[in-house]
Amino acid sequence: MFHALATSTRRDILRRTIEREQSVSTLASEYEMSFAAVQKHVAVLEAANLIVKRAEGRERLVRANPEMIARARALLARYEELWRSRIARLDDLLAEAPSTGASDRTDNTNTEQGD
Amino acid sequence: MFHALATSTRRDILRRTIEREQSVSTLASEYEMSFAAVQKHVAVLEAANLIVKRAEGRERLVRANPEMIARARALLARYEELWRSRIARLDDLLAEAPSTGASDRTDNTNTEQGD
DNA sequence: ATAACGTACAACCAAATGGTTGCACAAAGA
DNA sequence: TCTTTGTGCAACCATTTGGTTGTACGTTAT
């Protein structure tokens, strides 16, 4: 899935199909490359479930699948969560190690950098 | 950057270096592949600024760069925002269309769908 | 019916990728 | 000193990737 997102052309296709459903050839007309090249990019995005296609006459209408985008984002959010918990653990160590004796954690509102 | 995240080995390295800073050879010992292969993966992550290295004696200690992870997540969040605003726009159209004629647009014969 | 359009897919090609081994070199240790 | 360890880099190889052209086939228009 990250592989599917790894090309700017595909991210652009994703952006366009988020904004509005459109056919493969309409998409293809937006780029310098051949129709077949765009069609392959669409196929990669489809395999990653980042878009879905719908048949309408001879056209295939492409639209983004927001579920999958949310999933990618959630995965990265988990990495950030790992980071926060690591900081929290270090924080605990620092709170315990010195002989300050105070077992209760004083103000530990620290460097949260996520949004 | 998404390219750097596109391999499970590299995502795993990222995960490990989030949890704790460690040397390249320590990382390499965790995988079946050769040291050089892991070293190249680390180099890719470093080029994408997803990790940073620090020299300590002959070792190179690797740690994750949470800023960059947040940035990747923010980019995906923007796609979701696009989706939400698209839904909101459709919502507006549906709210306006039935009542209040308001024929401001002179030649709106081709009633754009979506945007 | 015939032409034009939209799509899919195969074959092909150059470049990038993910892996290997081997070598060079600095730092630690015997 | 000599050896071992940790690192980086180059050369090489197989596979994947991103692009091309060509072909086939169903749908729409003339």
Question: Would you mind describing this structure in some detail?
Answer:
The structure is a homodimer of 115-residue chains. With 115 residues, the first copy, chain A, is of the alpha+beta class. The first copy, chain A, is 53% helix and 12% strand. Chain A has 4 helices and 3 strands; from the N terminus they run αβααββα. A 3-stranded antiparallel beta sheet of chain A has the order 1-3-2. At the A-B interface, α1 and α4 of A face α1 and α4 of B. Chain A binds a DNA duplex (30 and 30 nucleotides) through α2 and α3.
Could you write a compact summary of the structure shown?
Chain A has 115 residues and is an alpha+beta fold. Chain A contains 4 helices and 3 strands. Chain A starts with 7 loop residues before the first helix and ends in a 19-residue tail after the last helix.
Report the major sheet of chain A.
3 strands, antiparallel
Largest interface, counted by CB within 8 Å of the partner chain's CB: A-B, 27 and 28 residues
Helix/strand order of chain A: HEHHEEH
* General shape of chain A: elongated
Question: Helical content of chain A, roughly?
Answer: 40-55%
Distance between the termini of chain A: 23 Å
Total number of beta strands of chain A: 3
Query: What structural class do the secondary elements of chain A suggest?
Result: alpha+beta
- Which radius of gyration of chain A do the C-alpha atoms yield? 23 Å
- The chain-level mean pLDDT of chain A equals 84
Give me the number of helical elements of chain A.
4
Which strand order do you get reading across the main beta sheet of chain A? Answer: 1-3-2
Low-confidence stretches of chain A: 99-115
Strand content of chain A: 5-15%
Oligomer: homodimer
